[in-house]
Amino acid sequence: MSTLSIMGCGGDPEPTATEPQSPSQMAKTDDQKIEYLIEMLHRKNSLKKNAQAARSLGNMGAAAESAIPELQKAIKTTKDDKVRTDSEAAIKAIQAAAKPAP
After folding, report:
1. How many CB atoms lie within 10 A of CB 7?
2. How far apart are CA 57 and CA 83, in angstroms?
3. CA-to-CA distance for 83 and 72, rounded, in angstroms?
4. How many of the other CB atoms lie within 10 Å of CB of 52?
5. Quick check: helix, strand or coil at residue 45?
6. 3-state secondary structure of 44
7. How do residues 21-43 score in pLDDT, each as one tens digit?
8. Is 57 exposed, middle or buried (0-12, 13-18, 19+ CB in 10 A)?
């Protein structure tokens, strides 16, 4: 008989959540979302989550302008091409959204 091993999201060695977040635990403001995504961007041993966090920050547009230094840090420190390219794309998206209309 073989045993079944369950991996967490993105290949994490252990699941990171045991149940869904309650509404009171969910981020409510953009600042809270950005703070959470920055934590995920730098999470160890979770390249899929790192890349997903970068994409999510880019999708937030100008609201995530404060995250640009953290995205730049991720570009410099990661060894993963996907995290690097998603972080670069996020910076471009944030900067484009933050530019004033002509």
Report:
1. 10
2. 12
3. 11
4. 19
5. coil
6. coil
7. 555 556 678 899 999 999 999 99
8. buried
